[in-house]
Specification:
The complex is a heterotrimer of chains A (127), B (211) and C (659). Chain B has 211 residues and is an alpha+beta fold. Helices cover 46% and strands 25% of the residues of chain B. In chain B, strands 1, 2, 3, 4, 5, 6, 7 and 8 form an eight-stranded antiparallel β-sheet that branches. Chain C has a six-stranded antiparallel β-sheet, with helices on both faces. A six-stranded antiparallel β-sheet of chain C has the order 9-8-7-12-11-10. Chain C is rod-shaped. Classes of the chains: A alpha/beta (127), B alpha+beta (211), C alpha+beta (659).
């Protein structure tokens, strides 16, 4: 079952770290990367994406805004907001738009809950 | 030191502990990023003039410094800095990229990697403090600065009033990699007043009636 | 699980036995506290309560009320995610004793960074606390700061006093670089830079530092021990301020270093003073000697000249022209001897001066003929007195002598010809005018005699004023010229300077003080006075201890027509005066006589006969009859040797002078 993960972060380092954690948990899944919100929206128009890992703190468009956009287009897509800004308020806002919250730096342990949940939902949706 | 704005012993203790928690979180994150043990010092907290804050840093580091700066606004506003000697910069970048990159790539990614590292560390620290004080802060995108302590604290362009700031710093060191640095935070006076109120609430919650 | 608990219990017990004061284990989720026996004892828990399943609030039970809030905050931090716990606080034991505890703990996090347990160790640090207190007081009271450094570390552990001594913000640990940053000069670092050099051989060293806070430069001494540790080492030492000692040392050293120099300069100064004194003593001695000789000599010359003079006056020149020529030669020789004596006296500053207000312009033009006659044609003479010269006061005869002397010296310095310039002008030395070395502030008339001759070296200049020093060949000069000039100038209250360059010429400058109008102007009747006769009604008392001189003097006076009575000393003269029926018109007395001086005699005579005139005769004159180098009014002086004509003129002049 091919799964494509969209990683959005304006930091290359952060994308590397997230990709590494992803590869450790789901080595078969493929990933596409975007350095910002606009690029991400462009990508999803061309490429089908199964789930998204979105950085919160980005310059042009913050992660919650992008997540909201994606949510309206893909109501069922598992989305995670990734940030070190673990303020209760941010966590609450992520929940509001149906996004999971993963603390930075992304580790396999931190990502595991979200990914296994997403895998289950994807499998359910496809079956 | 202006007594009117100086923190009481208990307020200072509370703030120290809150910073301690925030920095513990930051250290834990740094540890995750570089996969090595991070040693923290006990946080030091002072209400000092901006000039003195700059001197406190330069006194401890003669060499040129590099810092990731993040400004925050909310019930209290200020500036958080992750500071380390410029010579440590590439070593830190190499550590956080965990040997995934070639030497050339490390240099290429240096700036961006510093921003991300600072982002993770300062964000987690500030966010933890905000949570503990039951308030919310908005934070800017971090930026990298280079220069002396005076540059980093913006005391070079001698503002007419050399205002008092809350200066707190905590040393961190990664012995094996010879990386060391400081996390420093400065808050202006109106913010300090709000902070005192928030600390008072926090103390009341924690200490309760026990006194 | 039970096994694990038992194991943990055993471990805690062992730790307690090894000296740990107590341990605890706080289960956060379950909100339960477990402590060991020692912890329970310190806290005064009832043993029956058991050591586990305690409410967590019990953790704060024994904590001193003043520390309780602080500890609650610290524990809250751990429960909220802080990792480390390291606190010192006081507890009050059931017995009421206050003890200092150091609690060291750690939170245990789950996979999601959530704290689940909080464990730690409680150590009684009361003794250490007291020792620390003593150490802190010892350090601040003694101004000693301590440090500890493990090799390879980037920071050193320091005491508060350590920071204070270096002017650094108090901290428990300082980066090595910061500490070494206060050193004023490179070289030995206060703390070795990490992984750079082998361990130092000793910690004994003194550093110059620039304090970080006030920039003050201080001297700091470091002492301590180097303790080997594994493959590395650890330094434990102290620093203290030795600036005062260092400064004293530096002052002492400087004192020592400059001692030799200061001694040398003091010795040189003393040497100079001694030289000057010796020179003055020499001059004085020579002066005394020459003065004494001149006195006797003048008496002899008076007799010789007087007698030759007498013979010549009575001699019929037609009878034996050859004998007359011989007598005239003898007289000339005696006169030369007299002038030599005069010069000796001038040098010894014992010549009687008769200062008068002088119009220098007139004096110089009057000398023009004399100079032209004395100076050969190969030398161009220029006499250039400035217009409106101030008046000066000096002995005109002697001043002429001086100028003539200098002119003759100039002539002798220019054997192949050249030019001689004599100028006179007004000069003022003082704060508003030029300063002239060696010349006190004041107004002067400056007379300069300049030649274009062979000049003199500095060595020669230093000696020219010495009597009998001469650059001339033996027989060509007496060597008294310049010393006479010097004596005259000094006696006249003036100053003299010589400026000379070998091969270029010499310039002698004489500064004579400006005389403000008032002093009598000298009528320069230098021509030989005509002998004017006396009358028998005019009695002259001659007092002279030298029989020959007295006889000669008396004979002249009688020849001149005066009535002369004589005495060989003062006492005789006074007795004679008492018996005298007719008044004495004039007392002619030698100045220097044994028992009673001429001056004393004159004073006594005046009390007996107030209107008496006094004429002194002298080979030289001491201050006895002079006041400020001048004769008193109503008194006159005739220098020995004197001739018939000179005495005749002087006596007549004095007797005719209106009282």
């Amino acid at each position: 079952m091919p799964v494509t993960v969209l990683i959005v972060d304006d930091s290359k380092l952060a994308r590397i770290v997230a990709a590494k954690a992803l590869a450790a948990l789901q080595p078969d899944w493929s990933k596409i990367e975007a350095g910002g919100g606009a690029q991400a929206l462009e990508l999803v128009d061309r490429t089908p994406v199964d789930l998204a890992l979105i950085d919160y703190n980005m310059t042009e468009m913050d992660g919650l805004e992008l997540a909201g956009d994606l949510r309206s287009r893909f109501p069922d897509m598992p989305i995670a907001i990734i940030t070190a800004n673990i303020q209760d308020e941010i966590v609450a806002r992520a929940r509001e738009i149906g996004a999971a919250f993963v603390a930075k730096p992304v580790t396999p342990e931190g990502l595991e809950g979200f990914l296994s949940g997403a895998a289950l939902r994807l499998r359910a949706a496809r079956s | 030191m202006a007594d009117g704005v100086a923190l009481g012993d208990l307020e200072r203790d509370a703030l120290t502990e809150i910073v301690n928690i925030g920095v513990s979180r930051a250290a834990s994150n740094l540890r995750k990023m570089i996969g090595d043990h991070v040693i923290l010092s006990v946080p030091s907290i002072d209400v000092v003039s901006q000039r003195r804050a700059a001197r406190l840093i330069t006194e401890r580091e003669a060499a040129d410094l590099i810092a990731v700066r993040q400004d925050f606004t909310g019930p209290f506003s200020g500036r958080a800095l992750l500071i380390f000697p410029e010579a440590n910069s590439l070593e830190l970048v190499r550590a956080v990229t965990q040997g995934e990159l070639s030497a050339d790539e490390v240099i290429e990614i240096e700036r961006e990697a510093l921003v991300e590292t600072g982002n993770v560390i300062l964000n987690s620290c500030l966010a933890t403090m905000a949570n503990l004080l039951r308030s919310s802060l908005s934070m800017t995108i971090p930026e990298v600065m280079r220069g002396s302590g005076a540059t980093l604290f913006g005391v070079e362009d001698a503002s007419p009033s050399d205002g008092l700031v809350l200066f707190l710093y905590i040393d961190f060191a990664v012995r094996r990699l010879d990386i060391r640095g400081y996390i420093a935070m400065i808050m202006d006076l109106p913010a300090l007043e709000t902070l005192r109120a928030l600390l008072g609430d926090f103390i009341a919650r924690v200490v309760g009636d026990d006194g | 699980m039970a096994d694990a608990t038992a194991e943990a219990d055993r471990l805690l017990a062992m730790l307690a036995a090894a000296g740990a004061s107590g341990t605890w284990d706080w289960e956060i989720a379950a909100d339960r506290l477990r402590v060991d026996r020692r912890f329970a004892e310190l806290y005064g828990f009832d043993p029956a309560e058991g050591l586990s399943d305690l409410p967590t609030a019990r953790f704060f039970a024994a904590i001193h009320p003043d520390d309780r809030a602080r500890m609650r905050i610290a524990v809250a931090a751990i429960l909220a995610g802080a990792e480390l716990f390291s606190k010192e606080f006081r507890i009050v034991t059931p017995a009421g004793t206050t003890l200092w505890m150091h609690a060291r703990g750690q939170s245990h996090l789950d996979a999601h960074d959530e704290p689940v347990r909080f464990t730690g160790l409680l150590v009684d640090v009361t003794e250490r606390k007291r020792a620390e207190e003593r150490l802190r007081i010892a350090q601040s009271a003694g101004g000693v700061g301590s440090f500890e450094y493990s090799d390879g570390f980037a920071t050193a552990t320091v005491s508060e006093e350590f920071c204070r001594l270096l002017g650094l913000h108090p901290a428990q640990a300082l980066p090595v670089r910061t500490i070494n940053g206060v050193l004023a000069d490179g070289g030995v670092p206060l703390i070795p830079e990490p992984s750079r050099e082998p361990p130092p051989e000793t910690l004994d060293h003194v550093f110059r530092v620039r304090r970080a806070d006030d920039g003050d430069e201080r001297w700091i001494a470091r002492r301590g021990e180097i303790l080997p540790e594994g493959s590395g080492y650890r330094l434990v030492g102290v620093i203290y301020d030795v600036t005062q000692a260092k400064e004293q040392e530096a002052r002492l050293r400087e004192l020592n270093e400059t001692l030799e120099m200061r001694v040398a300069s003091a010795v040189a100064e003393r040497q100079e003073a001694e030289d000057a004194l010796r020179q003055a003593q020499k001059m004085e001695a020579v002066g005394q000697l020459t003065g004494g000789i001149a006195h006797d000599f003048n008496n002899l010359l008076t007799i010789i000249i007087g007698n030759i003079d007498t013979v010549l006056r009575r001699f019929d020149s037609a009878a034996d022209p050859r004998a007359r020529r011989s007598l005239e030669n003898a007289l000339k020789g005696a006169e030369r001897a007299a002038s030599l004596t005069q010069r000796l006296l001038a040098f010894s500053r014992r010549q009687p001066l008769d200062p008068k207000r002088i119009d220098l312009d007139r004096l110089l033009s009057g000398m023009s003929d004399l100079l032209t006659r004395s100076i050969p044609e190969a030398i161009a003479i220029q006499l250039a007195p400035a217009a409106d010269l101030w008046s000066i006061e000096a002995d005109p005869h002697q001043l002429e002598n001086v100028i003539l002397n200098l002119a003759v010296n100039a002539r002798d310095a220019m054997p192949d010809g050249g030019s001689l310039t004599i100028t006179a002008r007004n000069v003022t030395a003082g704060p508003d005018a030029e300063r002239i070395a060696g010349v006190p502030d004041g107004a002067y008339v400056l007379i300069q005699v300049t030649d274009t001759g062979i000049g003199m070296t500095a060595d020669t200049i230093a000696k020219v004023f010495d009597p009998f020093f001469t650059t001339k060949e033996v027989g060509k000069g007496t060597g008294l010229g310049l010393s006479m000039v010097y004596g005259f100038v000094k006696q006249s209250g003036g100053h003299i300077e010589i400026d000379s360059t070998p091969g270029k010429g010499t310039c002698v400058s004489i500064f004579l003080q400006r005389q403000h109008p008032g002093a009598p102007e000298g009528n320069e009747d230098i021509e030989t006075p005509a002998a004017r006769p006396g009358k028998l009604s005019e009695t002259i008392l001659v007092v002279e201890d030298d029989d020959d001189v007295r006889a000669y003097t008396v004979s002249i006076l009688r020849e001149l027509g005066y009535r002369a009575v004589e005495a060989h000393d003062g006492a005789t003269a006074l007795r004679l005066l008492e018996r005298q029926e007719t008044p004495i018109a004039l007392l002619l007395t030698d100045v220097v006589m044994p028992q009673m001086s001429g001056q004393e005699l004159a004073n006594r005579v005046r009390t007996m006969q107030g209107d008496i005139r006094v004429l002194y005769t002298s080979g030289y004159t001491r201050e006895a009859i002079m006041r400020d180098g001048r004769l008193e009014p109503g008194v006159d002086l005739i220098s020995k040797p004197f001739t018939y004509h000179m005495l005749a003129a002087k006596v007549r002049d004095l007797l005719d002078r209106a009282q």
